Amino acid sequence: RYFVLGHGNVFHRLGYAVSRSFITRGRAGQTEFNYSELFGNWIGAEVSNVYHPVEDRTQSATLSRAELQVLWDTTADVLKEFWPDINRLLHHKKTK
Length: 96
What we know:
Helix content is 64%, strand content 6%. It is built from 3 helices and 2 strands; from the N terminus they run αββαα. The protein starts with 9 loop residues before the first helix and ends with a helix.
């Protein structure tokens, strides 16, 4: 789950959003390594090997699939962070 920061300058918020792929909040609210994100994507990439031809089931290809999923998740976190601002700008332009 992504918790929107919602304040600070663009670079601070961007850094926060990107970092959430590697750092998350624990049950008690403390920060901790995001094992579920990284290992979950790695396990998903391993399972997806069933659907790939044998020659595409290399460690390198599997790692690339996991990395790509982390990239997509990070992109989604950045969009979640800035979407309220983008949405406000879009609606503000429509009313003028």
